[in-house]
Design brief:
The structure holds two protein chains of two kinds. By secondary structure, chain A is mainly α. Chain A has one domain. Chain A has helices at 9-35, 39-42, 47-69, 76-105, 119-128. Chain A is elongated and about 60 Å long. Chain A starts with 8 loop residues before the first helix and ends with a helix. By secondary structure, chain B is mainly alpha-helical. Chain B folds into two domains: 8-46, no CATH class; 58-160, Ribosomal Protein S8, Chain: A, domain 1 (2-Layer Sandwich). Helix content of chain B is 59%, strand content 12%. A three-stranded antiparallel beta sheet of chain B has the order 1-3-2, with helices on one face. In chain B, β2 (119-125) and β3 (130-135) form a beta hairpin. Chain B is elongated and about 60 Å long. Classes of the chains: A mainly alpha, B mainly alpha. The interface between A and B is large, with 38 and 38 residues.
């Protein structure tokens, strides 16, 4: 039929479990993105998809391909690594942009800009660079 | 280290990445080695700040703690999403005074805080070392400050400073 028929039962069960875990978490993250009320709450929800959502699907892929090819297939780890390293970049961009807009519009519920920077520190920083 | 290997760690990780992508064989190791060496020499021309790792044995411990924490908060946030609006839940900002100054350490901390569902890195003030995070399920501010400082910052400082 398909190569799937060669897969032993234990591997099929494990693959199915992790695949379901990953996709359910990603789905929940998307629902959360829809249901949360404020922007700052919403940025938490997709993190489900970028951590164990991706992780579950990748573990399933590692098991499936390693068993079928009878050798460890591990390049999925690179996907996990790069997703983890690049998520903070986009998140910080979004969060700081939202903070900047909320502060300049004077919206409620946003902490004021940090004004307690010691002048000594500022000098040290500019002399370092 | 030397003129030939200015960034041994980078060269090694590039070689590992090459082998993971292309499979393990003598030819691929040689080819990957050449590519990794050339890439790290090119990197040396940019003269980035070189991170120093002081304590290697702390890394697996930190990695394990972070993986478990991420799994736990995945479950917690999934629970919050499933409960919907019935529950009165407060989210808010927490300010954490950090002592960690190493740039690589801060970058790793950013990855940890961002990857953990329920906490998000919002802004960092380099002059005073104050970090502001947003917490989805905020009950006790001091508990979050202690958690970040004790669990992650202390270990990161041991690794990088």
């Amino acid at each position: 039929m398909t190569p799937l028929a060669d897969l032993p039962v234990w591997a099929a069960l494990l693959t199915g479990f992790f695949l379901l875990l990953g996709s359910v978490l990603t789905l929940l993250g998307s629902i959360g993105l829809l249901r949360f009320r404020s922007f700052y709450e919403r940025i938490h929800a997709p993190t489900l998809g970028t951590t164990w959502g991706t992780g579950g699907v990748l573990i399933a892929s590692i098991i499936f391909h390693s068993v079928l090819q009878s050798k460890p297939v591990l390049h999925e780890i690179l996907i996990a690594l790069f997703v983890t390293v690049t998520t903070p970049v986009s998140l910080m961009l979004l969060a700081r942009a939202a903070l900047y807009r909320d502060r300049s519009e004077g919206n409620d519920g946003v902490p004021p800009f940090e004004t307690v920077a010691e002048p000594r520190d500022e000098q040290r920083r500019s002399s370092n660079t | 280290m030397s003129a030939l290997l200015p960034y041994p760690l980078l060269t090694a990780s590039l070689l590992v990445m090459w082998i993971l992508l292309n499979g393990l064989s003598v030819g691929q190791v040689v080819l990957g080695g050449i590519v990794a060496l050339a890439a790290s020499l090119a990197m040396a021309a940019l003269q980035p700040a070189k991170p120093r790792i002081r304590s290697w044995d702390m890394i697996p411990q930190l990695l394990l703690i972070v993986l478990v924490d991420i799994l736990r908060s995945n479950i917690a946030v999934a629970g919050i999403i499933l409960q919907g609006r019935r529950l009165t839940r407060t989210s808010g900002f927490v300010m954490i005074p950090l002592e960690l100054r190493d740039r690589t350490g801060l970058a790793v901390l950013a990855c940890i805080i961002t990857s953990t569902p329920g906490t998000a890195w919002v802004e960092y003030h380099a002059g005073s070392g104050r970090l502001r995070i947003h917490v989805l399920d905020l009950i006790d501010q001091q508990a979050w400050i202690d958690l970040i400082k004790q669990r992650y910052e202390r270990r990161l400082m041991e690794i990088f400073e």
